Amino acid sequence: MGETMLLGLEKSLQGMKRVEATGFSSEKTAADYFMEKEGILDEIGKSLGEVKGAADTEIEALKGTLKEMRQNLKGMAANPKELTRRELCHQLGKAIAAAWTGNLATLGELKCSPNLKSDNWNNPKDFQWTAEKGFQLTGTKAVIGEPMGNMATNEQFLINPIYETALMEDAAKQSVMMNLVRHRPMMGPSVFLPQRERGGVELKWLTAYGQKIDGSKPQGATRVELKAYTLAGFIPWYDEFEEDVFVDLGSIFIDEFTEAYAVEFDRQCLIANASPFTGAFNAPDLKQKTISGAAATALTYKDLREATLLVPAEERKDCRWFFHESVLAHVTGIVDANGRPIWRGPADGKPGSIDGYPYTESHILPQMGDIGTNTPFAIFMNPKRIVHGNRKGVEIKRFDATTESLEYGELFLRFRKRDGFLVTRSKGNMVTLKTGA
Question: In Å, how far from its chain's centre is CA 153?
Fold first, then answer.
């Protein structure tokens, strides 16, 4: 309404005679001119009042709509819909089937995103899906809203970050280290972390006015590099993706991924030997406590006590033991000098302890029957000294270019994730138990 009225007023203004500068041929002409002009101006004033009233009404209506949308958004943020286990498996299975068959529409609806073939993976936030234009870049990589063109040749996709979070939560339940170590988000393939030893600040007492302050150079932090590499796994698959098996597809992927990833996570934290990371057992400058015998069965209370005392008290309070469950079975029978067991089982919601320190069992550590001579088999440390670098993104891809595919028709679903591991401050803060020569 307002636009039509303004157009009419504009035409009236254009038709007004502008002869003030040249004068009028008669008084009647002048009177008619000014009467016409006054009428038009009165009409403009009335019309602008109506336009303002209409605009105010529309603006108030918009304000009300915005307020309602804000309230709804707050309610959704405060009470987000939580996926049930079955819903999660169904949606993840549907995404896997869509990635396998190249169904871009389904992938877009499930908030998955294409991962272009480059060293730096795409950020899912840089993509949006519309039914009219398909996948579009929304970040600074291209003009906003620009279609990505033909995506038929792309076979690798990043799953919805919500699914990734659920996968990591499941993996944490199977891993003994994931809930103990320190996690660091990584935006790039490498990040430098400050590593400061205790005593970095030097203090000086002044006992007299005007006393000279001796110069000192505080010990600064050293920089250690945390690198992230790509971890890939292959899950044997079958080429049946009907809607009634989406739940099963998602469940299989979750089980296979979390079981394999949890074991590898613990291995990199504890026993990895430069492949490509170094675990705590092989960290440099470790202190070692050699027990009194060449076999692990010679382990005594004195060995355990002396090992813990090798770690400074301020560090020791946050340390715990790590060993195989078969070693724990032996430790439960060890008594102190007064004949009291040093092992306390979990009770009243408290974790078990050995000589007052908590412990963690891991089946990837050396077990009792396999521990040879001159071999480390247990470690006492603060697990927070292990830093896990987490680069977001879990990629899935159909992988059929294998010998098994040609000979047996067996297909694989490849998944990839990027992680980094770094043991920090191992010098003087970690100690291993090892058998004698």
Answer: 28
In whole angstroms, give the CA distance from residue 427 to residue 288: 11
Q: Per residue in 68-91, pLDDT tens?
A: 766 665 655 555 566 788 999 999
Whether 78 is covered by a domain: the verdict is no
Q: Are strands 376-381 and 431-434 parallel, antiparallel or unpaired?
A: antiparallel
In this structure, the answer to whether residues 35 and 25 fall within a common structural domain is yes
Q: Give the pair of three-digit tokens for residue 380.
A: 């006492």
pLDDT of residue 15: 54
| Beta-bridge partner residues of 193 | 224
Residues 57 and 152 in one domain: no
Q: Specify if 207 maps to a domain.
A: no
Cis peptide, bond prior to residue 312, ω within 30 of zero: no
Give, as one character, the DSSP assignment of residue 278: B
d(CA 73, CA 65): 12
Overall size of the chain counted in residues: 437
Element (H, E) at 65: helix 27-78
CA neighbor of 1 nearest in space, from 62, 66, 60, 57? 57
Are 142 and 230 found together in one domain? no
What domain count does the chain have? 3
pLDDT tens digits, one per residue of 98-119: 988 888 899 989 989 888 777 7
Q: How confident is the model at residue 28 (pLDDT cuts 50, 70, 90)?
A: low
Query: Which residues form the domain of 40?
Result: 2-69
Q: Is residue 206 part of a domain?
A: no
Residue 147 above 90 pLDDT? no
Q: Within this chain, do residues 379 and 290 fall inside the same structural domain, yes or no?
A: yes
3-state helix, strand, coil in the chain (%, to 5): 40, 25, 40
- 337 and 270, same structural domain? yes
If asked whether residues 359 and 236 sit together in one domain, one would say yes
Asked if residue 77 belongs to a domain, the reply is: no
Q: Which pLDDT score, from 0 to 100, does residue 280 have?
A: 96
Q: pTM of the predicted model, to two decimals? A: 0.75
Cα–Cα dist 47/59, whole Å: 18
DSSP SS3 for 113? strand
Tell me what pLDDT residue 143 has. Answer: 45
Phi first, then psi, for residue 360 (nearest 5°) are -135, 130
Domain boundary among 141, 158, 175: 158
Q: Are 319 and 386 in contact (CB under 8 A)?
A: no
